[in-house]
Design goal:
Transferase, Pyrimidine Nucleoside Phosphorylase, Chain A, domain 3, 6-stranded mixed beta sheet, 4-stranded antiparallel beta sheet, alpha/beta, Pyrimidine Nucleoside Phosphorylase, Chain A, domain 2, globular, Barwin-like endoglucanases
């Protein structure tokens, strides 16, 4: 058959499109699998059928084309492939069975090699969510995700920090990494881009320096500076996780939190890890009790994987700092390293760095505070330069969205609460993180006094239409609660109401 390229983005899957006649002759139907061979290279692809193609002609998506090294007009052969054995293991989990290491390893291998359809992946994720995972299964997933990806090795004592996410503006890593690296510890921070938030760590750092680097480049950066802040998606670290996330996001489920985080920490050869668990209303984890249970699971999994882990339940009932969105947050990071940052960001960064220092015998929170005051800014400049950015960049050099709207208080009182997911959605509607200058700047936070007409927060956007959309969400979500004291307003919401409740799913790694 003759190859024809089809511009089709299907989230990394291999797709082959056949004419109806060829599909019938081969006994193939949509979502079946076919082995495609071209020039001695083979790949298993998911089948689709279209009347657009003539007999003897096949469509291939760009990922499959690259895998086969094919070009338009190349000759390729197609033959049916049976369902992978891993589908039976997925069915076993759906029925409530416990999976063994070999079964989980086979599922993860087929995920990495793109042999499973989105329907099968969705079934697996749903089964994990509804049936739950034993600690053995969590360990088997973690090991399989590491073994099917790349790993990095560094000299010295390797440490790391990770947040389970859930609060807007959490730029802690960008302050913590230079503090830790300036102590002589090695901290190769591989981070994610935004999934459901206005900015992931990689989105924030990209304002200051490139974050997409090859493995050899990262090794050179870390050897030179002791740390890095790079995007992990380009490194093939635990690649199965990226496929799982693509399914978890639309389903609104997150059953793979533990293996996702731990596999990536182990893949960069970390020895000591501090896990940040933001806790409270509007965060992923609502109570200290739930944070305790999650922390115990992290510690148990860490022991099984050879990692020393400590967890910190941190205040998660409002955004961290004042800026939300890539440019606004990058500005705030530089201000903090210059000694002019918000107190909550400083306290969280030195607190978590202090935990790492105590774990490694390097000191404590006071050590972290001293390094922040004396060395961290210089170290951050080294990291920015090593990653290809301008080490002399100043906060005022970073542009933010010029289209603005000021959202004002409608009554006197204090800020009693801030709705994190709703505020994050407003910032995303303004254009973050795609538009680096988009986001929100908070003028008032929980406990602060306001008078009617005072500015609560300013929305920044790069496009007028995005600003208008964000402002319209403010009325719908009412992200701030204003009152004179807790308890004076006892009726918070009536159900049903004119504005239907929308549950906002948070998925961050």
């Amino acid at each position: 058959m003759k190859v024809k390229t089809v511009s089709l983005d299907v989230g990394g899957k291999y797709v082959v499109i056949l004419s109806r006649e060829d599909a019938e002759n081969l006994g193939l139907r949509p979502l079946d699998r076919a082995l495609v061979e071209c020039g001695g290279k083979t790949a298993t692809a998911i089948v689709d059928v279209s009347s657009v193609f003539s007999p003897g002609e096949i469509g291939v998506n760009p990922d499959l084309k690259a895998k086969l090294g094919a070009s338009d007009g190349s000759e390729a052969s197609v033959k049916p492939q049976p369902k992978p054995e891993s589908v039976d293991f997925i069915k076993k989990k759906i029925r409530g069975g416990r999976l063994r290491y070999r079964e989980i390893r086979k599922i993860v291998e087929d995920v990495v090699h793109r042999r499973l359809s989105d329907i099968e992946l969705a079934a697996f994720v749903t089964a994990l969510q509804t049936r739950g995972l034993s600690m053995d299964e969590v360990e088997f997933l973690s090991r399989s995700m590491i073994e099917t990806g790349s790993t990095l090795r560094f000299g010295g004592t390797v440490v790391d920090k990770h947040s389970i996410g859930g609060i807007p503006g959490d730029k802690t890593s960008m302050v913590l990494v230079p503090i830790v690296a300036s102590s002589g510890l090695t901290i190769p921070k591989t981070s994610s881009r935004s999934i459901t938030s206005p900015a992931g760590t990689a989105d924030r750092m990209e304002v200051l320096a490139p974050v997409e680097h090859e493995i050899d480049e990262i090794k050179e950066i870390v050897e030179k500076t002791g740390g890095c802040l790079v995007w992990g998606g380009a490194l093939d670290l635990a690649p199965a996780d990226d496929a799982f996330i693509r399914v978890e996001h639309p389903l609104g489920m997150d059953p793979l939190l533990l293996p996702s985080i731990i596999s990536k920490k182990k893949a960069v050869n970390s020895e000591f890890v501090v896990i940040d668990i933001p806790t409270g209303r509007g965060a992923k984890v609502k109570t200290i009790g739930a944070a305790q249970e999650l922390a115990e699971d992290f510690i148990e999994l860490g022991k099984r994987m050879g990692l020393k882990i400590k967890c910190a339940a941190t205040f998660g009932e409002q955004p961290l700092g004042r800026g939300v969105g890539p440019a606004l947050e990058a500005r705030e990071v530089l201000l903090t390293l210059e000694g002019r940052g918000p107190g909550d960001l400083v306290e969280k960064a030195v607190g978590l760095a202090g935990i790492l220092f105590s774990m490694t015998g390097k000191g404590d929170e006071r050590t972290a505070r001293t390094l922040l005051e004396k060395k961290a800014l210089g170290k951050m400049k080294e990291i920015i330069e090593a990653q290809g950015g301008d080490p002399e960049v100043r906060p005022d050099d970073i542009p933010v969205g010029e289209k603005t709207a000021r959202i004002r208080a409608e009554a006197d009182g204090r800020v009693l609460w801030i709705k994190n997911p709703e505020l994050a959605s407003i910032a995303k509607e303004a254009g973050a993180p795609k538009h680096k200058g988009a986001g929100i700047y908070l003028h008032r936070k929980i406990g602060e006094k306001v008078r009617k007409g005072d500015v609560l927060f300013t929305i920044h956007a790069e496009k007028s239409t995005k600003l208008e959309n964000a402002v319209s969400l403010v009325q719908e979500y009412e992200p701030y609660g204003i009152g004179r004291r807790y308890g004076e307003k006892m009726i918070l919401k009536t159900v049903p109401s004119e504005r239907p409740h929308k549950r906002i799913f948070i998925l961050e790694r």
